[in-house]
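Hi again,

Forgot to attach this to my earlier email, sorry! This is the prediction with alpha-L-arabinofuranose bound. I've pasted everything inline since the attachment limit keeps bouncing my files.
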Amino acid sequence: ATAATFAATHPALAAKPLTIGFSQVGAESEWRTANTTSIKDAAKKAGVIMKFADAQQRQENQVKAIRSFIAQRVDIIAFSPVVESGWDTVLREAKAAKIPVILTDRGVKVADPSLYVTLLGSDFVEEGRRAARWLVEHAKKNPGRAYNIVELQGTVGSAPAIDRKAGFAEVIKGEPRLKMLRSQTGDFTRTKGKEVMEAFLKSEGKNITVLYAHNDDMAIGAIQAIEEAGIKPGKDILVISIDGVRGAFEAMLQGKLNVTVECNPLLGPQLMQAALAVKAGKPVPKRIVVNEGVFPAEVAAKEFPNRRY
Ligand code: AHR
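Structure tokens for the complex follow:
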């Protein structure tokens, strides 16, 4: 067959493979590890060449990685921004180089929305609302109980920390029985979650009856602090978190975590689909939201075998 007929019958093989430069937040949580695996696996499966950079939770590392992707002239830049603001300059550089940018997982605040093609990820405000709604229902069923909440926030300035805080606050605002005692960042890690919970326990003691953690890893770290203080997590202190990773299901099965709100990290296949569409010049929606559920401890045993991360 001539080159022309080969190309006609094997368009995928004949075309130059797509190259994506991907800048990941880091490896701060179980969620993030699952997200990285999903993206790398999906790239391999789609025949996409992936240049991967781990930013170790630092924006300056992401800016450097994006500039290096521009210099290497990748076809598409994708990244999960550590924080929301401070992206205008580097994204303008990508636009000037005519390299489309896809955001995954976390959003950015930029003056010109045309600096990125699409944001593929969860609705973090809704996740915060879901966490609070579970608590409101719990309070309805327990009229004599006190609801004094401490909150472990995610990374300062990150979209999930800002939005999960806002969604939760919006729902508890109308509920005078639910009181927020303290709120501080635990940077989405187990170590920090434990450390900050220890400080909360030191200052508030047995007054604390609810912990709301912006992710499962911080909740798991905090559970350790609670147990070390001789208090029962899941009982004396209700524990609510977000992600739905295996570690959270294990904690629920042990009666130490009360509910996890799902945040799906398996974004790889949808990212590849969007990237290939962008490359082919097809229209892509500005926002692609992932479908997610809520898993209270009562369904943990049934759901556990179905979990993929
Ligand atoms: O951006 C998603 C959040 O980042 C996850 O909830 C958290 O676990 C991760 O570190």
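The first strand starts at residue 19 and ends at 24. Residues 63 and 235 are 44 Å apart (CA to CA).

That should be everything now.

G.
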